[in-house]
Amino acid sequence: MNQKRQKIVVMGLGYIGLPTASLLATKGHEIVGVDVNEATVNTINSGSIHIVEPDLDILVRSAVNSGNLRASLVPEAADTFILAVPTPFKTDATGSAKNPDISYIETATRAIAPYIVEGNLVILESTSPVGTTERIGEIISELRPDLAAGHSQPGSKSGCSKIHLAHCPERVLPGHIIRELVDNDRIIGGVDRLSAEKARDLYKTFCNGGIFLTDSKTAEMAKLVENSSRDVNIAFANELSVICDKLGINVWELINLANKHPRVNILQPGPGVGGHCIAVDPWFIVAAAPNEARLIRTAREVNDAKPQWVLDKVKAKCERFKNPVIGCLGLAFKANIDDLRESPAMAITRNLIQSGIGHVMACEPNVLTDFAEFPLYELDKVLGSADILLLLVDHDEFREIDQELLKEKIVIDTRGVWR
Ligand code: SAJ
User: Fold this and answer.
1) Whose alpha carbon is nearest atom 3 of ligand 1?
2) How far apart, in whole angstroms, are the C-alpha atoms of residue 146 and residue 135?
3) Of these residues, 168, 277, 318, 363, which one is catalytic?
4) Among 16, 52, 223, 230, which is best to mutate for testing ligand 1, by the most ligand atoms less than 8 A from CB?
5) I need a surface site. Which of 35, 156, 230, 300 has the fewest CB within 10 A?
6) Inter-CA distances, 90 with 33, 96, 101, 358, Å
7) Residue with the nearest Cα to atom 31 of ligand 1?
8) Span 393-405, mean pLDDT?
C-alpha cells in the first residue's frame, strides 16, 4: 500500500458502504463499519453478508478474517469518515413534489461529530442534492465550533475549516459492484482543493480508474446528471414500447434494427424503472430547478407510468378467465439481484394481489429467505399452474425456460426475453 494505513469509519453498511469498507480493509486500512441494524452488524462480524451481490461474500469474509474490518453500532475516532447512507426522496402532502430527504446524512454527521479531530477527512459517498457536502460542514461546525474557528484552510466553503470535506459519489452498478468499485473512473469534489486531494490519495489505494477532481457542488450534480441521463434514455425506450404496442410492431426487433445505425443506441424497455438511484435521483434536480428541468421530469413521469400500463395489459388478458392463475416472474428491480427497492415488478405484483383479479403466484429466485409479504413459489410450480405468465425481470433462470412450456399460456413479456 502506497498510502499510509488509515483508520476509517464507514457509516452505513449497505450496497455501497459494505463493499467500500471491505475493499479498503483488504488494502490494509483499519475499518470500522457502522450500521444502525444490529442484525447487519452481527452478520458482518461473523464474516457473512446480508445482501446478494456477486463476490461480495468472499470479499467481506477475507476483510473480516484479516482483522481489518469489524462492524459496530457506534462510530469511534478515526482518520477518515465515509458516509454511505441512503438519500431517498419524500413526497409532499399534495403528492406532487418529490423532495430529497437528507435526514440519514444529517443523522450520520451528528453521530460522527463528537469523534472528529482537526485534520480529519470526511467523505460523502451517498448520492446527494447539490449543496449537501457543504451542509455537512455546517452541521459539524454547529456541533463542534472548535473545528470551525480560525480559518486554517483558505478558500474552504464548508464553514468547517479545520477538517477536510469531499464528495466522492459512488457510480457502481448493482450486480457488478466489486469490479466497478475498482475499475470505474471517479469524480471527487472537495470543498477546497486540499480536501479533494486528500480524498484522491485515499481512493487511489483501491481505485484503478482515473480520478478527476472538482468542487463538491459539481461532483454532486455530476452524479445526479449521470443517472438522469440514463433515466431519460430509458424513458425513450419505454415510450417506444407503448407506441409500438399500439402500432403492432415488435419493439425489441425495432430497437435492435435502429441500433444498427452507427450513432443510435436506444436502451431497453421494461415494466418501469426501479432501484434506489435512477428512479430517485432525477427528482433531486427537478426539486432544485422545477421550472427548468422539464425533460428530466417528463422522463420520470413516462417511466413511472409504465407499471400501470403493464397492469392494464394483464387485467385485459384476465377478462378471458373466471379465476386466472397469474405467474409473476421476478420481483427485483433488475436482473440477477435481490434488491426490491422501488421495484416496478414488486409494485405490479402487489397491485395484482390486492386487486383480487385471480390467483397470483410470484417467483423470485434471488429472495431465498422467508418472504413476509406474500408466498413465493418455485419456478416449476408457476410454470405448471399459470394461465398468464407475466415476465417482469430478466433473471437468468427465466431466460433458460424451455419455450415449449410457454406455448399453451398467455405470455406478457415486459423485458423482451422471449421475443
Ligand atoms: N432499465 C431499463 N432499461 C434499460 C436499462 C435499465 O428498463 O435499458 C431499468 C432496470 O431494469 C432497472 C432500472 O432501469 O429497473 C435501473 O437499472 P440500471 O441498471 O440502469 O441502474 P442501477 O440503478 O442498477 O444503477 C445506476 C447506475 N447508473 C448509471 O448507469 C448511470 C450505476 O452506475 C449507479 O452507481 C447507480 O445507479 C447508483 O447507485 O446511483
Assistant:
1) 268
2) 17
3) 277
4) 230
5) 230
6) 27, 10, 6, 33
7) 227
8) 95
Q: Whose CA is nearest to atom 14 of ligand 1?
A: 273
Name the active-site residue from 198, 223, 306, 317.
223
Q: Rounded to the nearest whole angstrom, what is the distance from the C-alpha of residue 173 to the centroid of ligand 1?
A: 7
DSSP string computed for 50-91: SS--TTHHHHHHHHHHTTSEEEESS----SEEEE-----EEE
Longest CA–CA separation in the chain, Å: 76
Each residue of 136-166: pLDDT tens digit? Answer: 999 999 999 999 865 445 555 566 779 999 9
| Whole-number Å distance between alpha carbons of 385 and 392 | 17
Q: Indicate whether 107 pLDDT > 50.
A: yes
In 3D, which of 192, 215, 221, 193 has the Cα closest to residue 130? Answer: 221
Query: Exposed (0-12), middle (13-18) or buried (19+): which is 67, by Cβ within 10 Å?
Result: exposed
Kind of pairing between the strands at 69-72 and 80-83 = unpaired
Question: What mean pLDDT do residues 69-91 have?
Answer: 96
What are the φ/ψ torsions at residue 413 (nearest 5 degrees)? -105, 100
Q: Which residues contact 252 (CB under 8 A, 6 or more apart)?
A: 268, 269, 416, 419
The rounded Å distance from CA 123 to ligand 1 centre is 24
More confident residue, 154 or 41: 41
- Model pLDDT for residues 303-342, shown as the tens digit of each residue: 999 999 999 999 999 999 999 999 999 999 999 988 898 9
277 classed as catalytic: yes
| Ligand 1 centre distance from Cα of residue 212 (Å) | 22
**CA–CA gap between residue 178 and residue 21 (Å, rounded):** 11
